[in-house]
Design brief:
The complex is a heterodimer of chains A (390) and B (97).
Chain A (H helix, E strand, L loop, with lengths): L4 H6 L7 E7 L23 H14 L3 E6 L8 H10 L3 E6 L6 H7 L5 E6 L5 H8 L3 H15 L5 E6 L7 H10 L3 E6 L6 H8 L3 H14 L31 E4 L4 E3 L10 E4 L5 H8 L1 H6 L14 H4 L4 H5 L16 H7 L44
Parallel strand pairs in A: 1-2, 1-7, 2-3, 3-4, 4-5, 5-6
Antiparallel strand pairs in A: 7-8, 8-9
Chain B lengths: L14 E3 L3 E6 L2 E6 L4 E5 L2 H9 L6 H8 L6 H13 L3 E3 L4
Antiparallel strand pairs in B: 1-5, 2-3, 3-4
Classes of the chains: A alpha/beta (390), B alpha+beta (97).
Chain lengths: 390, 97
């Protein structure tokens, strides 16, 4: 009754509302914009027992649900056990997947639990646009998974799209695709985090595309989920549904596969590392007592944005987007709707390198099935000739 | 759920939290999460939390409000808040049992 709710949130909560937990850095794909630079499993990954202890803690803290991602979380051999364990402990699970393990049998098992939700990632409404970013065959994998979920009767799963310069013209197609499979569309912002930092300049929507995206989001209201990720667009006028604030360390945070706790899923960097769930006091202590989170919960300086009339609406935008494009944290967002970001980028400092990096060591090899190469040597017809293990 | 033949005000009906709703107290009031609709709601003051948590023990929401110490002048605000919670299925009318 004293402060507005968002101001209360900015001071932090007893537990996160939105907790992202990346279970593994292992992934069958190598998406060019991967926020967590995933690919290879980290040998220090939390064990099954450690994951279950984290879930126990989330239950005690009354974290209603976790957004599980990766990497590709379903490639962990204990993934379904961990989901069952979370559900049994009244911690809901929404997991993001490229669909690789969503077979008809898995889809049938997932139906009917209020505590489990599935989010299929797709970054193009056509194979050409999607596979250019997510890799050859990934469109078919995602659509097969969606078909399996729909067939099993899983209503309202999420079709999750990172909006890019290349797919922003397909918003209606994504909506139609979601509706065809009985899914709900979720659009999120491309962040220059992880491998995304190196492709951001080519993939992020242009200023003119941003304006059309905003109008589209306003027109579609609450029927499209956004994970609050477009609050920097509130500078255009009407706020989009959601909290419209940067929740880093205040209402959101990230637990990474080795138990490191970062301020938000888009800020995997030493500068935003608050602690580790393996430390004394576990996750609860990191959330409640870390110095980084305490400082994020203090009133933040508007810096260069102080005199801007849009500041109350956009709050200066996304901390991670500024950080990884080399902009000061108290300056404009790189995609500032008033154009201040573009000006600032022109004179930006050298952007910090994202860390850590678990990318596959080799670039993905294009499939060349059906094209038979000549044997390496005339006498060498071994079926494994020419095969180089990864 | 039909409201025919029932009093118009939610204050005069018996309520309880939906079984699929979890409540987490916070300094400003509480967070509510409905596992069925997957929606979040906020209770913006601690007194409203007290009312919501005691709904099931009272024959009407009005009685729960009065017992929590809600004054007559504040009652319309609580009526609106309960109406909103009912609209998002966070609370439901108790059946006869």
């Amino acid at each position: 009754m004293t402060l507005p709710l968002t101001a209360q949130f900015a001071r932090g909560l007893s537990a996160p509302i939105c907790l992202t937990w990346e279970l593994t850095y292992a992934c069958n794909l190598s998406c060019v914009h991967c926020l967590s630079s995933s690919g290879r499993r980290d040998p220090r990954e939390l064990t099954t027992a450690e994951c279950m202890a984290v879930i126990d803690e989330l239950e005690r803290m009354q974290v209603f649900y976790v957004n599980i991602g990766g990497g590709e979380p379903t490639v962990r051999s204990d993934f379904w056990d961990l989901v069952s364990y979370a559900v049994a402990h009244r911690v809901g699970v929404k997991f993001s997947t490229n669909g690789i393990k969503i077979t008809p049998a898995v889809a049938r098992r997932l139906v009917g639990s209020d505590y489990v939700d599935v989010q299929i990632s797709l970054d193009g409404a056509t194979p050409e646009v999607n596979d250019a970013v997510r890799g050859a065959g990934s469109y078919q994998t995602a659509l097969r998974a969606m078909g399996n979920l729909a067939e099993a009767g899983f209503a309202g799963f999420k079709l999750s799209v990172v909006v890019t310069r290349q797919n922003v013209g397909q918003l209606d197609d994504f909506a139609a695709l979601a509706s065809r499979y009985g899914a709900q569309l979720r659009l999120t912002r491309l962040r220059p985090a992880g491998r995304g930092a190196s492709v951001w300049h080519d993939l992020h929507p242009t200023a003119e595309q941003q304006r059309r995206l905003y109008d589209w989001l306003v027109a579609h209201g609450e029927s499209v989920l956004t994970g609050d990720s477009f609050f920097h667009l509130a500078g255009y006028g009407e706020a989009l549904p959601g909290l419209n604030l940067c929740g880093a360390g205040r209402v959101v945070c990230l637990i990474d596969p080795v138990g490191d706790v970062y301020a938000c899923p888009f800020a995997i960097h030493q500068s935003f590392l608050a602690g580790n769930v393996r430390d004394e006091g576990g996750f609860a202590r990191v959330w409640r007592e870390s110095e980084l989170f305490a400082s994020l919960r203090q009133p933040q300086s508007a810096g260069a944005c102080t005199s801007c009339s849009a500041f109350d609406a956009c709050q200066g935008g996304c901390m991670a987007a500024k950080f990884f494009t080399g902009l000061p944290l108290d300056g404009p967002d790189p995609e500032c709707v008033r154009g201040h970001g573009a000006t600032a980028l022109a004179q930006a400092a050298v952007a910090p390198r994202p860390s850590p990096d678990h990318s596959h060591r080799r670039a993905p090899v294009p499939v060349t099935i059906g094209r038979r190469r000549p044997p390496d040597r005339a006498c060498d017809e071994n079926p494994l000739a020419g095969y180089v293990p990864a | 759920m039909s409201t025919n033949s029932h009093p118009a005000s939610p204050l005069d009906r018996p309520w309880c939290l939906d079984e699929r709703v979890a409540v987490r107290p916070e300094p400003f009031g509480a967070l509510l999460y409905h596992f069925g609709t997957r929606r979040l709601s906020f209770l913006k003051d601690p007194l409203l939390l007290k009312v919501v948590q005691s709904l099931a023990d009272h024959s009407s929401a009005r009685s729960a409000c009065e017992s929590a110490g809600v004054g007559a002048e504040a009652m319309p605000a609580y009526e609106r808040a309960l109406g909103t919670l009912a609209g998002s299925a966070m609370i439901r009318v108790r059946d006869g049992r």
